[in-house]
Design brief:
Function: Provides the (R)-glutamate required for cell wall biosynthesis.
Low-confidence stretches: none
Mean pLDDT: 92
Distance between the termini: 30 Å
Binding site for substrate: 8-9, 40-41, 72-73, 183-184
Strand content: 15-25%
CATH class of the largest domain: Alpha Beta
Radius of gyration: 18 Å
Family: Belongs to the aspartate/glutamate racemases family.
Helix content: 40-55%
Pfam family, one: Asp_Glu_race
Catalytic activity: L-glutamate = D-glutamate
CATH topology of the largest domain: Rossmann fold
Amino acid sequence: MATIGVFDSGIGGLTVLSEALRQAPSHHYIYLADSANAPYGEKSSEWVAARSLDLCHWLVREGCQALIIACNTATAEAIANIRHEMPAIPIIGIEPGVKPAVKKSQNHKIGVLATQNTLKSDKFKALLEGLDHDCQLITQAGLGLVPLIESGALDTAETEALLREHLAPMQSAQIDTLVLGCTHYPFLAPLIKKILGPEVEIIDTSEAVVKQLCRKLEEHHLLQSVPPRIIHLYSTLDAEALSAQAKQLIPAAFEQHSVQTSTVFIS
């Protein structure tokens, strides 16, 4: 049995935690939401890199033996340095699912909705340069979406209006596949489907991320079969609010696992 740390700028990484609990329930999980500093997508690259490393150090001090950086922005800005600083620990990042989108798209027109920092990062540019394809990629920064999601405004007129504004260029281009390049955005999937229609396929990389986690756990001999079913939710802002959001967004986790919550200050 391993203790696995999952961190995000806020509640977005709950999408990854939910998938981890489905695929690999036989572990302890520590989820850390840096909600006091969300969103990361509009902060400086230097700040994101330094903060992400600090949070990973904290998770390791709490006993984590593997880490999931469940934030596209933090992965883009920090994962190389984190892996350099912690070479003995399996560290799994997340990136926009452009590769599977290229394979799935029929009309070769793909939308990528991500944070501003993810889209301008060297890691994202390298991802695109490494693709062998003839697809048209329409990228859009989802400015303003993360704060709305963090506040619980998943199906409001304000959120729909902003989402329609961001998706308009993709609709004009007639995309048939949309990549969600932020772990917060899958919570808006019903609203996105309402706007784009059921014919547009939505790509979320949580499943692939957790499969990679399981491979790394096996390599490090950390896989076990007896599920302790314990999750500890930490927030740098308000753990009770995080717990309430988690109960709403991933209720199955609370039905099958013992959940503890704490508010922490991490300098």
